[in-house]
Amino acid sequence: MKKVYINSIASISPQKTYDNCNFLDEITEYNDTVIFAQDPDYKQYIPPAAARRMAKGIKMGVVASKIAMDEAGIETVDAIITGTGMGCMIDSEKFVSAIIDNNEQYLTPTSFIQSTHNTVAGQIALGMECKAYNFTYVHSAISFESALLDAKMQLENNEAEHILVGGVEELGAHTTKVHRLINHIKPEPVSISEVLHSKTEGAVFSEGTNFFVVSNEKTKSCYAELVAVETFNTLQKEKVSEAIETFLKENNLKLDDIDLVVFGNNGDVDFDGYYNKLSEGIFSKTQQVFYKHLVGENNTVSAFGVWLASKILKTQTVPEIVKINKINSSEIKTVLCYNQYRGQNHSLVLLRKC
Amino acid sequence: MSKGVAITGMGIISAIGNNVAENYDALINQRKGITRVDNIETIQRDEIMVGEVKFTNDELIAQLNLPPENNYSRTAMLGVIAAKEAIANSGITNIKKYKTGIISGTSVGGMDMTEKYYYEYLTDKETQKYIESHHAGDSTQKIAEQLGVEESLVTTISTACSSAANAIMLGARLIKSGKLDRVVVGGADCLSKFTINGFKTLMILSDTFNTPFDENRKGLNLGEAAAFLVLESDAVVKAENKKVLAYVKGYGNANDAFHQTASSDNGDGATLAMEKALRVADLKASEIDYINAHGTATGNNDLSEGRAILRIFGEEMPEFSSTKAYTGHTLAAAGAIEAVYSVLALQNNIIFPNLNFKTPMKEFSMIPQTELKKKELNTVLSNSLGFGGNCSTVIFSKEA
Amino acid sequence: MSELKEELKGKIIEQLNLEDVSVADIADDDALFGDGLGLDSIDALELIVMLDKDYGIRLSDPKEGRKIFESVQVMADYIEEHRTK
């Protein structure tokens, strides 16, 4: 079985992350309940004729994929695999509301076509003229990890050499409005420094995208080795520690071997307990970081966790703003990312310095 | 890597039957399930025909014994019915005995409830329970819950009309790689105003019975359905002394990279998908005994797919047919529906006819199988082609 | 007639989201599809809906559209002849 490497990364998020030369050097402060991604100059990457039908999510996905391809220094890939929990919300909303508002009359095709979940992966393929394997996973908070797992299997078995993997999520106004009604969104604005201690229900909703070129050969730009990915549809709070220990054991590792954990805390008082239990339990002596205070919560934001871990492994620096505790590892060789959303769809991603 | 993955159970609900036996009966008696739409209020009613499961949502709720406060979309309910039949058919009584996952394909997801309560959500608390069932993964989570699959790999694929074929593909690879011992794979999609009006705007809905591969085809009939297969590793088959219905022998996915919705004139993507599947199966084109074509009866699909089939099979064309005239195009579920039909074809050595065909297409001389035909079948190739240029082929076989 | 043509140009730009094109950029005889404005089959479907909604002209076959949408001039001529509103 071949080893798998993350050879390039790209992120568009509510922070200014689209420039790979920076690593959270400048932090954009927010005090809100919903935060939007910061736009790169899309025109620099997408010709106007192609961009005219693209909603924000599609533009973000296409641009992030190009940034990742550029950094990896390759022209094409053997597979394009994306994850999106909610899909193309802006066009979906546009088409549903048009159906209702116009009583099914005078509807036009563009928003319907663009609403399809695999639009981003399809557009990337179209732009690259890439006829290879093209999948889109749409399973809530593990959409990205499903894509990553698929890629990893193909690379390990040498069915592919380079795969573009990414997660993308865009905010739709109506969807945001209705999620507010069921308390999935925080009732009051919170600032970055308050998120973890907000003691309120719900999360700060957001959007963004993260793309990676993963390969079974290490290149100069390599960030990390992707050691293992596992997902769980359900997992009781009491069983997360056990699941992690089993997972590590399967990868011939002990708890002590983990130099840093990346948690998916979003400040939701009902569900942060999953992380707190680990933070105070099996990982109480481990360096811990988090990121959702900076980039909010969405179905594929855990890919930002992988982005963060990759950056940390490559640069061997941990920005102050992401630190949860005061423990500092002298060398960061092995990183574990753990995420869940509303108590369901848990994921573990294990990365190693390359 | 070329060894087949065992199929040990299957379940289905479609416009032509509520289980595998009913579907088979309709197939061999050439009974199609295409009618006017009854369960959805739409102004398009008199302009389109659909392949509809005739149970109302209330009837499905009763059948599944769901509590009144449930928030199941129709997609989820259809999916649960088919998945439960597959598990029973496979003789599984203890799902936790082996490491079991679920991979489902859907494109509509919970859109049926979203379009019904879109504005009501803002004012009517009663309806708000469905907000959380909108996303595509919700139906799969519910299937997992109903089957008792916990702490496992449960995921959803949405690649438009090839979704379920891709779910089968991922499932087979998970078994081969040893990640799972057993995996329930398939897809579910219900009819919705969203898809009815969406395809209407593309002007590819027929106002009458769809006629795959016919020169005068007028477009597709949308359908709703769910189907699931149980895939098991050789170790499980051996340990449990399982009866194997057929094997997933090969699979391939490729992208046409031509146009957002239309297929390329020469069917590049479909050609690549079939080539890959044959390679994985380690079979020559001449070793395929029957092709269950995607054959949606749109002008574009049948021409593009037909050319791709010609490119692969040339002079050695086996019998081919599309079963869309029976069921309509069930979108994300189509690959699973046709997987069940492919396995039935293998089990019974029978080729299902391509109904409603009259006039050969002028672009080529391909003529689908129009009568029910008995033939010794060892291999069946099934195509599923979708939006975004997504092209998939799965090959099923009698022997591993 | 020239008013209708200006109106059509504006609608094409708006409906098809041609951000970098202005009314002055489209000549009456410019090809709308292919090498001209570069419109495609999805745009044709959008324009078919526009014909129905704004001028009361219903096309049942998208292929008919391609001839009508050859240029703004051809479109305007067709609309003048067939419009019901």
From TrEMBL, chain A:
Recorded hits in InterPro entries, A to Z, give:
Beta-ketoacyl_synthase, Ketoacyl_synth_N, Thiolase-like
A Pfam family it matches? ketoacyl-synt
Q: Which GO terms describe its cellular component?
A: cytosol
Question: Could you state a single Gene Ontology molecular function term?
Answer: 3-oxoacyl-[acyl-carrier-protein] synthase activity
Matching entries from SUPFAM superfamilies are given as: Thiolase-like (SSF53901)
Gene3D superfamilies from the entry? Answer: 3.40.47.10
Keywords annotated in UniProt: Transferase
> Where in this chain does the record put each Beta-ketoacyl synthase-like N-terminal domain?
39-216
GO terms (BP aspect) = fatty acid biosynthetic process
Coiled-coil region list: none
Protein name, please? 3-oxoacyl-ACP synthase
TrEMBL record, chain B:
Q: Which Gene3D superfamilies match?
A: 3.40.47.10
Supply the SMART domains for this chain: PKS_KS
The segment(s) forming the Ketosynthase family 3 (KS3) domain are 2-398
Kindly give the InterPro entries that the UniProt entry links to this protein: Beta-ketoacyl_synthase, Ketoacyl_synth_C, Ketoacyl_synth_N, PKS_Beta-ketoAc_synthase_dom, Thiolase-like
Q: Which Pfam families match?
A: ketoacyl-synt, Ketoacyl-synt_C
- CDD domains linked: KAS_I_II
Q: Does the keyword Transferase apply?
A: yes
Q: Name one GO biological process term.
A: fatty acid biosynthetic process
State any GO CC term. cytosol
Q: Name one GO molecular function term.
A: 3-oxoacyl-[acyl-carrier-protein] synthase activity
Q: Which domain of life is it from?
A: Bacteria
Q: Which PROSITE patterns does its entry note?
A: KS3_2
Q: Does the keyword Membrane apply?
A: no
Q: Which UniProt keywords apply?
A: Transferase
State the similarity comment: Belongs to the thiolase-like superfamily. Beta-ketoacyl-ACP synthases family.
* Record protein name field: Beta-ACP synthase
Organism listed in the record: Aequorivita aquimaris
From TrEMBL, chain C:
Question: What region holds the Carrier domain?
Answer: 2-83
Q: Which organism is it from?
A: Aequorivita aquimaris
What this protein is called in its record is: Acyl carrier protein
PROSITE patterns with a match to the protein in the record = CARRIER (PS50075)
Task: Identify the InterPro entries for this entry.
Answer: ACP-like_sf (IPR036736), PP-bd_ACP (IPR009081)
Q: Which NCBIfam families match?
A: PRK09184.1
Top-level taxon of origin: Bacteria
Q: What is the lineage of its organism?
A: Bacteria, Pseudomonadati, Bacteroidota, Flavobacteriia, Flavobacteriales
Q: Which SUPFAM superfamilies match?
A: ACP-like (SSF47336)
Gene3D superfamilies this protein is in? ACP-like (1.10.1200.10)
